[in-house]
């Protein structure tokens, strides 16, 4: 079987239903994926290839990567949401566990050094989730994929204002923690202060809050409705 074979036949109704968009090597992959997502019947008819007379114009690595890249567009859950969610949950769990103090695990104590890695993991994972939402919304608006239950639920519940309120709430929590640390430092006349754990948590919340606010602006832009096309 050669799913990239150019010898294909389809009805006009099926063609319009598939809503094919790409112009390059991804066209063959898009046709198969779109036919499956639209529940069209696919049959394979054996054909005989003529022997190639000239040199192949395909680039094995780059053309294969273009197909893989396009297929990843159809599975944002595995590319963005699952690794992003796992990383975010793990990072935040470690942050709050180590907030009280060192933890004995696997025969050694884990201290605030691990909190730095947990903080970075949480921030990066949260950004991956935001990118996944943006990529998924863009793919739907461009017609590559259709609305799914998760996207419909998110679209009904999401608004720019709610995103700003959520981001501001997270940011304010981080700001309040930072303010208490600063006031304690001020009360000690800017002397030595051991508030590394609280500072890491506050920094993480501040960054995630800002990410939420600005990501909300961008996502709301993707959800804007277009009334007409201008030349």
Describe the model:
This protein is mainly α and about 230 residues long. It has a domain at about 75-220. It contains eight helices and two strands. It has helices at about 10-20, 25-35, 60-75, 75-100, 110-140, 150-155, 160-185, 195-220, and strands at about 105, 110. A hairpin with a 2-residue loop joins β1 and β2 (about 110). α4 runs antiparallel to α5 (about 110-140). It is elongated. The mean pLDDT is about 80.
As a whole number of angstroms, the C-alpha radius of gyration is: 25 Å
Query: What is the rounded distance between the termini?
Result: 43 Å
Our count of helices gives: 8
- Structural class of the secondary elements? mainly alpha
Shape assignment? elongated
Instruction: Work out the strand percent.
Output: under 5%
**What kind of sheet is the major sheet?**
2 strands, antiparallel
How many runs of DSSP E, i.e. beta strands?
Answer: 2
Order of helices and strands: HHHHEEHHHH
Strand order, sheet with most strands? 1-2
Question: Could you name the ranges where pLDDT drops below 50 across 5 or more consecutive residues?
Answer: none
Please, what is the average pLDDT? 82
Helix residue percentage: 55-70%
Task: Tell me briefly what this model is.
The chain is mostly helical.
